[in-house]
Amino acid sequence: MTAVASHQGILYVVATPIGNLGDMVPRAVETLQTVAVIAAEDTRHSSRLLSHFGIKTPCIAYHDHSDELRVEQLVGRMQAGDSIALISDAGTPLVSDPGYRLVRSARQAGIQVVPVPGACAMIAALSAAGLPSDRFAFEGFLPAKQVARCVHLQALATDPRTLIFYEAPHRILETLQDMTQIFGAEREVVIARELTKTFETIKNDKVGDLVNWVAGDSNQQRGEIVLLVHGASKQENGMMTPEQAHIMKVLLEELPVKQAASIGSRLTGLKKNFLYDWALQQSE
Length: 284
What we know:
Distance between the termini: 49 Å
Oligomer: single chain
Structural class: alpha/beta
Radius of gyration: 24 Å
CATH class of the largest domain: Alpha Beta
CATH superfamily of the largest domain: Tetrapyrrole methylase, N-terminal domain
CATH topology of the largest domain: Cobalt-precorrin-4 Transmethylase, domain 1
Shape: elongated
Mean pLDDT: 92
Helix content: 40-55%
Order of helices and strands: EHEHEHEHEHEHEHEEHEHHH
């Protein structure tokens, strides 16, 4: 392990509120008050937070589009003895926010990196969703284009873990429609919207029903959104019972794959898409 020189500064990774300013932890306020500079995703956005807490520390922009020169400048300042706090617009930096390159460069330079924990939309949503939380996968934002989004979702269709996504409000309806097509209308999904804010909404339902709910209420297509998807069942994950496999094999002896999958779905209770994919695998 690289030794940390005593004269070097420290990089603090500081979580900030995701909505309710009361969620700002005292240690975060103290850290932001005492560092030499704050590296902020958007200095104008963060200025309101800093003003609320009476923090007068100067800010410098650090975001996804910052070049390597900015990283080198910040690392150089820490090597010279300045401590720096990294913050994002809201929540914990590096969770679908910039910061990875700076943290990695700091560690490679032997600079101590200290987390100052606090709010995180992903964890807040998971804690209140009522879905299994022993194993989960955070997927961040899905691709904006439908084809790429569906390809990504298809790759996760049999994942047994709870899946967590961030989604933009103008794409929420399309994403739920794509999930209905790929995961099946019965898959349980939770929408966690505007967490810790005035219009906080957490609703779980079958994804097919959520499509109708969101389509019928434009308010649900606003604000910051976390989507949580129940993991695939054992059947969806490829664990068919012997009886279900036998039914499909008999149907496939007499019918085309598409028709066998459709009838098999009615007989076994399994999703048609799953049975169709399973049947194709048997012929390989």
